[in-house]
Automatic annotation (TrEMBL):
Keywords: Membrane, Transmembrane, Transmembrane helix
Transmembrane segments: 6-21, 26-43, 49-68, 75-96, 102-122, 129-146, 158-177
Organism: Shouchella xiaoxiensis
Domain of life according to the entry: Bacteria
InterPro entries: YphA_Bacsu
One Pfam family recorded for the sequence: YphA
Designated name of the protein: Uncharacterized protein
Length: 206
């Protein structure tokens, strides 16, 4: 069912953000953004005769706002990575259209694999999820422009947001898991390097 993953994973992310994160400004911003996204997804606007989801525009704004914090000299590699992710998303969509036999597997899973492989190969750290999302967003726009004469699909459909939710969730969970393992390793290493305590004993016969 279209929209199942985005709403299920979206509400799960909101619960984690609201009840498990520390009470900081970041938690409030994340919680508000997730709720706004879930609210705006079904709302559509017409831009130049094209129907676009408000949730799609919100995702673009958040992604661009994050990239805007990068110095200009450091934007080349994120742009290159975003382009590769967008191309992988478009190619898999075209493969599914040309050869429907591949749909013996779930369509959402098929569409998530190439972007995830590209993102894990080219990026690392917490920025991976943002760059992955931005690549998919641009891929959706380019795919719509390429197929403009074939279909009148909405930019930012439920099917797209399902793919976006799965890829970002996998990327974020991997980062969180890697951070937990890294911190655990640091603690174990710190414990192993602790000096052995020497008992303070006084020899009565000295």
């Amino acid at each position: 069912m279209s929209g199942f993953f985005i709403y299920w994973l979206g509400w799960l992310a909101w619960i984690v953000c609201t009840f498990l994160m520390k009470k900081t400004e970041l938690r409030a911003i994340c919680g508000f953004t997730i709720l706004a996204l879930l609210l705006f997804i079904p709302l559509k606007v017409q831009l130049g005769g094209v129907s676009v989801s408000l949730g799609f525009l919100l995702c673009l704004f958040v992604s661009y706002f994050y990239l805007g914090k990068f110095p200009w000299k450091r934007l080349f590699y994120p742009i290159f990575t975003t382009s590769c992710i967008a191309i992988s998303y478009i190619c898999m969509n075209e493969l599914i259209r040309i050869d429907p036999v591949v749909l013996i597997f779930d369509r959402n899973i098929l569409l998530t694999i190439p972007p995830l492989l590209v993102a894990f190969f080219l990026t690392r750290g917490v920025s991976r999820s943002i760059i992955l999302a931005l690549g998919l967003l641009h891929g959706e726009v380019l795919l719509h422009l390429y197929r403009s004469n074939l279909t009148e699909a909405v930019i930012g459909s439920y099917e797209f947001f399902d793919v976006l939710a799965i890829t970002v969730t996998v990327s974020s969970c991997y980062w969180i898991f890697s951070q937990v393992i890294r911190n655990w390793g640091k603690r174990q290493k710190a414990k192993a390097n602790l000096p052995l305590s020497i008992p303070n004993r006084i020899d009565k016969h000295a």
